[in-house]
Automatic annotation (TrEMBL):
It comes from Brevibacterium celere. It is found in: Cytoplasm. This is L-threonylcarbamoyladenylate synthase. PROSITE patterns: YRDC. One of its GO terms (biological process) is regulation of translational fidelity. Residues 14-199 form the YrdC-like domain. Pfam families: Sua5_yciO_yrdC (PF01300). It comes from the Bacteria. It catalyses: L-threonine + hydrogencarbonate + ATP = L-threonylcarbamoyladenylate + diphosphate + H2O. GO terms for molecular function: ATP binding; double-stranded RNA binding; L-threonylcarbamoyladenylate synthase; tRNA binding. Belongs to the SUA5 family. One of its GO terms (cellular component) is cytoplasm. PANTHER family: SUA5, THREONYLCARBAMOYL-AMP SYNTHASE.
Length: 216
């Protein structure tokens, strides 16, 4: 039986987030508000939890989830060879709606799916999400919807699609943008946009120069 908590009630939020951290550590799933859309979240270092996340969405291992982090400095533990481009992008756009794909640290003991040695990372600009991440560390988070359906902008939409596969639903109110984050791939020689979103190509070029747009 799923539980729902309203994280706009700041008087109980710390208790709720502590419980969410316990649930995530136990390998169960959460739905959380972010600055873009609602996300379904799992402990990034629990292979079974990530597998449950993908199953809840009806998604295969060929579509691994991104990882949300509580602070920009966390990338040094997750990314192999943090370079000037990544530091420039995180300095300008984090916290915010930019996901960065980079080569993952080869020593990490995790299984996000068929990542081909990469990891997609983002620091969301949402107070409740960051407060939770500060308790849990990196979480694997994908949009809270079943594959092929629009991303949930309210907790009701998320629960209608994901049901009892999720242990706790956090209600942070409607997400008004409805836009998933821009995704930039830095794992190759030339940065490329692989999903368009709130941050456009011109804004990115102002920061890192050369960039291709393969989002189509």
């Amino acid at each position: 039986m799923s539980r729902r908590f309203d994280v706009t009630h700041t008087d109980i939020r710390d208790l709720v987030l502590d419980e969410c951290a316990r649930v995530a550590e136990a390998g169960n799933l959460l739905v959380i508000p972010t600055d873009t859309v609602y996300g379904i979240a799992a402990d990034a270092f629990s292979a079974s939890a990530v597998a449950a996340l993908l199953a809840a969405k009806g998604r295969g291992r060929d579509m691994p989830p991104p990882v949300l982090v509580p602070r920009a400095e966390t990338v040094f533990g997750l990314v192999d060879g943090v370079d000037e481009r990544m530091l420039a992008l995180t300095g300008r756009f984090w916290p915010g709606p930019l996901t960065i794909i980079a080569n993952a640290q080869p020593s990490l003991d995790w299984d996000l799916g068929e990542t081909h040695g990469t990891v997609a990372v983002r620091m969301p600009d949402d107070e409740a999400a960051l407060a939770l991440l500060s308790r849990t560390g990196p979480l694997a988070v994908s949009s809270a919807n079943t594959t092929g359906a629009p991303a949930a902008t309210t907790v009701d939409e998320a629960e209608a699609m994901l049901g009892d596969s999720v242990d706790i639903y956090l209600d942070g109110g409607e997400r008004t943008s409805g836009l998933a984050s821009t995704i930039v791939d830095l794992s190759g020689d030339v940065p490329r946009i692989v999903r368009r979103g709130p941050i456009d190509a011109e804004e990115l070029r102002e920061v890192i120069g050369e960039l291709t747009d393969q989002a189509g």
